[in-house]
Structures are given as C-alpha cells and as structure tokens.
Amino acid sequence: MRPSTRTIGYLATAAFIATIPAANIAVQHYGIVPVGFGYQAPAAVFLAGPALVLRDLVQWTLGHRTAVTALVFGVILSFVAADPAVALASAVAFALSEAADMAVFSRLAPRWVRAVLVGGVIGVLLDSLLFLSIAFGSLSFLPGQIIGKLYGVLLGTAVVALRRCAPR
Q1: What is the total count of domains within the chain?
Q2: pLDDT of res. 24
C-alpha cells in the first residue's frame, strides 16, 4: 500500500524541520569536514542541500502555507539549536535561501524536475554566500559549501526525475 500524498508531506515536513537543528549541531560537533574533490566545508553542508529539496516536497504535497510555516519554525529552531554566531548565520542564510528556492520552485512548478533543480541551485548559492559571510566573515569554504550542498539537490532532482518517469 502506497502512503498518501498528505502522509508523505507530513513526513517531509518533520524531516525538513529536523534538518535545521541537525545542521547546527553538525557544525558544532564536527566542525570542518571534507566534501570531495579536495575541498572542505562546515559539516552542516550535508544537511542544507536535502533541506532545500525537502521544503520543495512540503510545498508540493501540503502547499505553500505549510512550507512557509515550516520555514519560520526552522528559522526559530536555528536560534535554539546553536551558539549565537552560528545560529544567526544559519537563520539568515536558511530563511533567505529557502525563500528564494520557494519563489523559483513556485514559478517553475509543475515542471517538477526543473523546479527542484533550479530552485535548489539558487538556494545553494545564496545559502553558501550568506552563511559563510555571516558565520566566518570569509568565503574560503565557498567551493566546498557548493559541492557539498549540490549532492543533496542533485540526489533530490534525480529522485523526482525517476519518479516522474516511473510507470504508474
């Protein structure tokens, strides 16, 4: 038996919201980690890409209002889950990158694959620039941030593409 669209949406909402404190905890616990190709980035990088895709899934399944509510809740959690410097950087970067992703996703939907990919890439770039600038005052980890976050966006895009092509 396949889960309903609403059930998938609720699970995506919980996972989306959970990525925010998890990302902040990852930065505090693991610090800087390798992301491949000789680059490094703060450990939260592996959660930011999936967060962008999960927010798309929330919007797709439960609507714009639920996605905005989850976004606001995530921003609040950023302040609760991390030390003040990381929390501020996380909250600002998260709010603005997710809002940009949401705007692009809304504009491109129902071309789902394109909406997830383009919105995610814009979100990755904005999140990386803002987080690094605010948290570290430097863009030295920018290539690693982009690479690490793109893993999640590309995986999410591939899942959507495969799902769209699957026989019903």
Answers
A1: 1
A2: 81
Amino acid at 86: V
Distance CA 17, CA 21 (A): 8
- Who wins on pLDDT, 166 or 140? 140
Does this model's pTM top 0.85?
Answer: yes
Range of the domain at 17: 5-165
Q: Are 121 and 151 in contact (CB under 8 A)?
A: no
CATH of the domain at 109: 1.10.1760
H helices of the chain, in order, are 5-30, 45-62, 64-81, 84-108, 112-136, 142-165
CA distances from 163 to 38, 54, 110, 115, 143 (A): 33, 15, 14, 14, 30
